Amino acid sequence: MKPFLCLLLTAIACINAVAAEGEARIAYAVVVLCDNQNQGIAPVPAELGNGQQPQANLYWGALYGVKTFFRQHPDWREEKQFSPAPVAPVLARAVFRHGNLILVADAYDGKYMRQGLRAFLNYEPSPIVSLADGLSLNLNDAAVRIFVGHNGLMDARLPLEKSDLKNVACMALCCKSEAYFQPYLQAAGAKGILLTTNLMAPEAYTLEAAFSAWSEGKTGAQIRTAAAQAYAKYQKCNLSAAQNLFAGDDPVKVDNGGGLRLISSLSCPAGYERIAVPENSFAAYMRALPLKPTGSPVLSWDGRIVYKGSEVMGVVDWPLPSKVQQCADVAIKLHAEYSSIHDKSKIHYRSLSGQEISYLNWLGGVYGLNRQGTEIVFHPSRSRKSDTRNELEKYLHFVMLYANSSSLARDLPKVAEKDLLPGDLYIQPDPSGRGGIGHVSIIVDSCRNQLGEMQYLLAYGWTPAQDFMLALPRPVNWFRLQEIKDMLAAFGKGNFQRFDY
What we know:
501 residues, 2 domains, 8-stranded mixed sheet, 7-stranded antiparallel sheet, disordered N terminus
């Protein structure tokens, strides 16, 4: 009994660890192997196009095939022990984990396109896969379903069948999938969040970028932008052309436990409407920030309750990486996250002492202090770091050590009050002028009435580090500008300023 008890306790501990990270979020990918003999494709080299040999297949074992790409990606860990073993026409199965994200991918024999399509559309029951730590994955309940391979619907249509994929986020990485797959997805109630408008290479970097963006609560447009950036990078093509390649719907935002899911879901005051902003703008990004369930408290970096849920308007559902992230750092992180999707060259900030710290330089070298410890210096390196989420977090941690409200106040242009947009900052630097502690607040939404009067939602972090929270004005839930200034008057004179985006 003792060995069994130890095994049981180990399994329970592993499951609890997953629960602590957050409920597992599962994606199921059906990869129909590239097959020169059985698919209507332009032939590829024989080894890449052998649909019965996953190991070297273009869509599975090749450099940018699903298994190889995720196995080599620094953010993902392969789960090598699982059950049951796949059965034909599935020739291989791979399971990868990144935090609470889990991707299960099945490699279908290339001559069984029809079965692969039916599996993707959930016309047949999906497998239940058990991992070595005791976690059971019912792929019928996967939040994301992905098809990778040749567009078999171009060769032969499937009859529509009953399938319940209501609100499931679906991606079809194959040529011209929007025209061919969308009718099936709509009939099943699914959301086709990443479909294609033309010919494309269905390789795994697009899948990884899109799945990661989905997991962060990004909008459909943001998910497709992330996919396009990855596609342009690896295909070495124009970003605009890559963006035109992808189409789709917005994913359904699930309300966790009755809470308001996005900032954009918060009601405007009576008689007010949100101002219009461009779809892919920084302002739209602010509105798409996810919120924790209503009533969630504001927590400090070490888990203490700083404010009760009744004392704030909302808490942004965003990781708090360390005690370093304070009010100015939240603004920097928001800008960096947005720019990582749209233009990484804009991810650069200056330290309080004036040295620029660029993310693109960071990838190609090392930042540090000079021998005197008085300024930051950069040393180029012969090898480049991988542009990954983990590396961006390391970069931001370094920036947060040396930038603050005073450096942002010095570097960012001022904005007239009549021109304010979501994403603009209210910066109150150290009034002594010595670069000490000040305060940075962020306008995360704005609305206007027929008289042209404006009201705003305001959010900020704090010192010591705590959750990014929406302030609760009294007696109403949105601020007029003077109310913002009055509430924050203790921090001294401030200015409205804007990042370059």
